[in-house]
Amino acid sequence: MSSSERKIYIICTHSEGMPDLKEYIKDLQKQGYPLQSIKGILLRYGYQEQVVDQTIYNLDHKPQFHLTPQVILAALGVILILSGSLYFLIKPPQQIPQKLLDVSIENIPLKIKPGEALEADVLFTNMGSRQRYDIFTKYEIFDTGSRRLTFKSETLALEDLKNKITQIIIPENAKAGSYVLVVTARYQAEIAKAEQPFEIVSEQQQIQQSTCSDGIQNQGEEKTDCGGPCPACSACIEECDDNDPATEDICNAQTGFSCVHKRIAVCGDKICESPETDITCPSDCTALQAVSEGNVWDKLDEIKQMANTLPQQALRECGNIEPSFKDQCLQQVGTVSQNADICNDIEDAMRKDRCYTEIAKTTEKVVLCEQVAEKRRDSCYMNLALKEHFEVCGKINNPYQKRSCETLRDANQFG
Predict the structure, then answer these.
(1) Are residues 76 and 113 in the same domain?
(2) Would you give per-residue pLDDT tens digits along the chain (415 residues)?
(3) Can you state the angle between helices 311-318 and 296-306, rounded to 10 degrees?
(4) Which of 58, 85, 107, 364 has fewest C-beta within 10 Å?
(5) Nearest to residue 15, comparing CAs of 54, 41, 51?
(6) Would you list the DSSP string of 229-265?
(7) Buried b (16+ CB within 10 A) or exposed e, 60-94
(8) Does residue 152 sit in the same domain as residue 287?
(9) Which of residues 201, 224, 253 is at a domain's end?
(10) Is 371 in contact with 360 (CB distance < 8 Å)?
């Protein structure tokens, strides 16, 4: 299906009430859409073919009137009758929805610490029939007293749909409590707004929340990360060794008391992995550039660039960065190098899902979406649907996104 037919189809499916059919067809013709495409989409949308054909015929064949005295008298009589009951007969015509913008927020973390970057997926949608235009967007964070904590703004070009991953740094002096991210999009007089709540937690609060998965026996635990305030302890099998010198054999509460064989660095295997360096293992690691000493954001930027050509060294550098930024570093390296195995090493569930989602979108591998948590999996599938992988429509649970996927699929099949 051509892009013009798809746009007509999407306009139809998003209209809250169709306008006068004749005027609507004339409007689409002015925008350059061929009559055959317009007719096809209207039939798919439920209009009867006879009605559509008659309307198109009337556009090209204006009726001829012969103004005889009898016709003039009859017309005057009709006008007089109608003028007496004007208020009862005239109804406002249906209009094409004037709402051009829509915005929604997805994949925002529920909890975050001061100094960290709040990341969110923001979806901007053009709900009308206009062409590409620029929108002014503002991202603001407010506390429960409607006091603004921080903000940023930018201008984006919007045509049909735009998925934007935005990042806002939480100030170091931010107090723990409930906050809300507010995204506002503006185009001329049109304004769209979306809100999403989250919490800022202190370092101590996060330590208490994560004690059952920190790999340390503390806080009254009977064993490491189990018993006491944590889930009851289970037991590992006696033998967990897979006899592979290139793996570390692990079994504890963090692995669900199942054997996990984690790959470790082996000098001589032609792979430069942490903690190998060009000094400790020159056969695997050539002399590589070092990440400069600077603030953590500069380091993350350099590591991201490094991942394009030296993914193994970039992965090693993630192990040297501040622990609270390690997951963000791994996410960057995984998505840039398109290595989904790196996503599995990310501890933060939301970042892990975003890593799989971005790689699935780039590589168009549907199977990667199955690694994403169920509550965020539909967004992963929709990214692939936009690339015409319509086999995912049956996997989507959200009814709105499922309907959008099926609409795109039907439009593509019609073409």
Answers:
(1) no
(2) 555 555 555 445 444 444 577 787 887 777 777 777 777 777 766 778 888 888 887 776 655 545 566 656 666 666 666 665 554 445 444 444 445 678 889 888 889 999 999 999 998 887 665 567 788 899 999 998 889 999 999 988 877 777 888 999 999 999 999 999 999 998 877 888 999 999 999 866 655 555 677 777 877 777 777 777 777 677 776 678 888 777 888 887 777 777 888 877 777 776 766 666 666 777 766 544 455 567 888 888 889 888 887 888 889 889 888 888 999 999 999 999 999 999 999 999 999 999 999 999 999 999 999 999 998 999 999 999 998 899 999 999 988 888 888 888 888 776 5
(3) 160
(4) 85
(5) 41
(6) TSPPP----S----S-TTEEEE-SGGGTTS-EEEE--
(7) eeeeeeeeeeeeeeeeeeeeeeeeeeeeeeeeeee
(8) no
(9) 201
(10) no
Q: Which amino acid is at 34?
A: P
DSSP string computed for 179-209: EEEEEEEEETTEEEEEEEEEEE--HHHHHHH
Pair (20, 56) in one structural domain:
yes
Residue 30 lies in a domain: yes
Same domain flag for 32 and 130: no
Q: How many domains does the chain have?
A: 3
Count of alpha carbons within 13 angstroms of residue 260, beta-carbon side: 14
Q: 380: domain range?
A: 234-414
Asked if residue 185 lies in contact with residue 101, where contact means CB atoms within 8 angstroms, the answer is yes
Element (H, E) at 12: helix 3-14
Rounded to 10 degrees, the C-alpha dihedral 402/403/409/415 comes to -170
Please identify, among 148, 183, 201, the residue that sits at the C-terminal boundary of a domain: 201
Distance CA(179)–CA(114), nearest Å, equals 12
Radius of gyration of the chain (CA): 30
Residue whose pair of structure tokens reads 């996410």 in the numeric block: 331
CA angle 321, 325, 326 (to 5 degrees): 65
Does the reported pTM lie above 0.70?
Answer: no
